[in-house]
Amino acid sequence: MVVDEQIRKPRGTGRRLRGAVANYLGTAIVSGSIAPGERLSGEVANAEALDVSRSAYREAVQVLTAKGLVESRPKAGTRVLPRSRWNLLDPEVLAWAFANEPDLGIVRDLFELRAIVEPAAARLAAERRDKTDIKLLRDALTAMRRHTLATDAGRAADRDFHDAILRATRNDALVALSAGIGAAVNWTTQYKQRLRALPRDPLPDHVRVGEAIIAGDIEAAGLAMHTLIDQAFDDTRAAMVR
What is the set of domains in the chain, with CATH numbers? Predict the structure, then answer.
């Protein structure tokens, strides 16, 4: 596959060009425009089509390789890998997934992962939180209430809220998921209100989770988080173009 001549990029610094090429190819792959198993045409042809140097194109492919989107082999060239190989929690991959209309399968997978991880994390947080964690949760809820999720500041507070819960678990493996889960929360929230206001106020759901964790109510924290995720998934599906 040779990239479309119409997306020819202006020349600039190597880092900017690498990012532009990786963004274009990553968005095309995640959206399905370049299908799993499809082979990217040669380095020379694609570099010329994008009006970038071969080194910039090569570096962009290395970025995609690191994220599990493509695989390069001698003589076989560069092929798009199946979705099961993609790092779907990579914040940049998630940005590409939501750059256009997201695939329902990806959205479902993200929410199923969250439904497995976050209620358990909320229960651990309720058991292990300390004064610092409680302050972080309260500060995040206050900022969400002040700014609302229609603003960048409000969505940043939402990410801080989920991050604080994972950190309160005192489990480094869970904390390592923070960037990915935060990105999933951010992009789905932005997506839901791209055409109209959020269908309902999600703040009360967050408040119930936060209050249960602060109170040390393990079961209530898990149930409240499960409800929050279920409601968010329903809202996201309702916002998707049929």
Answer: 5-85 (1.10.10.10), 91-239 (1.20.120.530)
